[in-house]
Amino acid sequence: MTAVPGAACQCDSDFLSQVERIASMYRGKPEDLVLALHDVQALRNYLPREALRVVARVLDVPESRVYGVATFYSMFSTKPRGRHIIRICESAPCHVMGAKEVIDSLLDQLGVEMGGTTADCLFTVEATSCLGVCGVAPALMIDDEVYGNLVPGDLFEILERYK
Ligand code: FES
Fold first, then answer.
1. pTM surpassing 0.85?
2. For a pocket test of ligand 1, which of 86, 130, 147 has the largest count of ligand atoms closer than 8 A to its C-beta?
3. What pLDDT is recorded for position 13?
4. Per-residue pLDDT reduced to its tens digit, 96-113
5. pLDDT at position 80, please?
6. Residue 111 C-alpha to ligand 1 middle, in angstroms?
7. Looking at ligand 1, which atom is closest to the CA of residue 91?
8. What is each CA distance from 125 to 2, 21, 52, 75, in whole angstroms?
9. Which of 87, 88, 89 should be mutated for ligand 1, with most atoms under 8 A from CB?
10. pLDDT of residue 6
11. What is the CATH number of the domain that holds 120?
């Protein structure tokens, strides 16, 4: 796998139709903009500019406000992200337990840098602070699933589950 920044997730008409359908559920409710963006982001794990335009039009909210909300909250991303988000802990307890070797191996296997998305749009790797599972450090999350007590040799089999 090699990383091609921005190669992921083209905004085809089918995708934009889905965005329109979701946004329509919030028509006339501009106060629910955050909820609408949350639902739209669930389609592709990020909010393409074209999707924000659709949301702005359907909710009758200025595009600048929609973009402002989408870039204010850390739970939203306007940059392309993969179908699965890998969050790997860089806090001290995980670091002490060997997180660096795990991180290096993970990035090497995926062919990306930290923050990058694989060319097939399957994975995005993000660094995070404590995941709250220090008892099983070093740890990472893939979507909502936690993996702990990691050694580099565990990664191949874990990643295969998501292919
Ligand atoms: S420090 Fe890594 S999970 Fe807490």
1. no
2. 130
3. 82
4. 999 999 999 999 999 999
5. 87
6. 24
7. 1
8. 13, 30, 24, 15
9. 89
10. 41
11. 3.40.30.10
